[in-house]
Automatic annotation (TrEMBL):
SUPFAM superfamilies given in the database record: POZ domain, TRAF domain-like
Family, similarity comment: Belongs to the Tdpoz family.
Pfam families: BACK_BPM_SPOP, BTB
Protein known as: BTB domain-containing protein
Domain called BTB: residue spans: 190-251
The protein's annotated pathway: Protein modification; protein ubiquitination
Signal peptide residues on this chain, from the entry's feature table: none
Species: Urochloa decumbens
Gene3D superfamilies per the UniProt record, alphabetical: 1.25.40.420, Apoptosis, Tumor Necrosis Factor Receptor Associated Protein 2, Chain A, Potassium Channel Kv1.1, Chain A
Amino acid sequence: MEHDGTNLTVAEAVRSVQLLKIDGYCATAAMEALEFIKSRWNIDGHEWEIRFYPDHWHFFEDEEMICPFDDQLDHSEWVALKLILVSEPQRDKLRVNLSCRLVCPSQHLDPSQEKAVSHVFNSHSKCSPEVLLMLKHELPSSGYIVKDSLTVECTITVLGDLDTADKEPVPPPSDLRQHLGELLESQDGADVTFHVSGESLAAHKAILAARSLVFKAKFFGGMEETSSEAVVIEDMEAAVFKSMLHFIYTDMAPELDGDLEPQAAVIMAQHLLAAADRYGLNRLKLICECKLSGGIDIGTAATTLALAEQHHCSLLKAKCLEFVTESPETLDAVLATDGYAHLMATCPLVLTELLRAARGRKI
């Protein structure tokens, strides 16, 4: 293409730079090779997910590099990242680059060497190759872990469509959750008001009934609340009920995805799990169960175990038992917490399983 020597733009690009900060990095030592920490971004009208793998196994392709006497030498262990396209692509091909580097928030250390990968995303290919950022064994001495926190600077660049002249129009991604969220916020057409811990929250019976069999029975099943325009909710905080309503309308729980401090998010997840079980919101219950499973510590193990027992969360219960019986020191520390006293008072039968798990681990 001929031009007069001035700058010529043949394709536009959208770029977003964000910091992925992992606090409590020492806890990632317990994560397995396929486990990851995720962060979601919205760029160029698409929803993306960055996945951070603290222990990614990169297998050698050259068979000569594999030692026949030691199967541990067939791979190397890396700190790695991948880019996932969560939403449906708005065009046939999305040409995207992911570049990453480690940075020091105090700037006393220069950023690490930038590593990058490019990928063409479409409806059949929504996962990029991995960015191998740094060998896992080199990270502790690199200086980038500061106060048990690691910060990764991630840059996502989405190249504009190279040929739009003859393309058929592609409908934009669904904005249903946005509109329903705005409907909840505006209260337009609301036909029921919940009184929760001194606050009044308006909603729509039909939407609640469509999402929850409990609400369906309450409003359309012959119960006394069927024609009622006001319902009093006992034994629940207003913030929890409000978050549950937001999930019913949008299928999202932002309080569990980084909007709150870690400790506050754990407490909210505990309350939301109980609320989800109470109103038959199985997806929300599972989301809370997964959130709590990944954040068990000395201070929360016993209360979370009690919660799992009371609300029939088998996965969460197993994770709690595994954590508590990990070592004699961990068990002693959990037994000394107020949460353990609560566990004894509310779920005495689970103590038998706790002892059986401890005996199985011979601690």
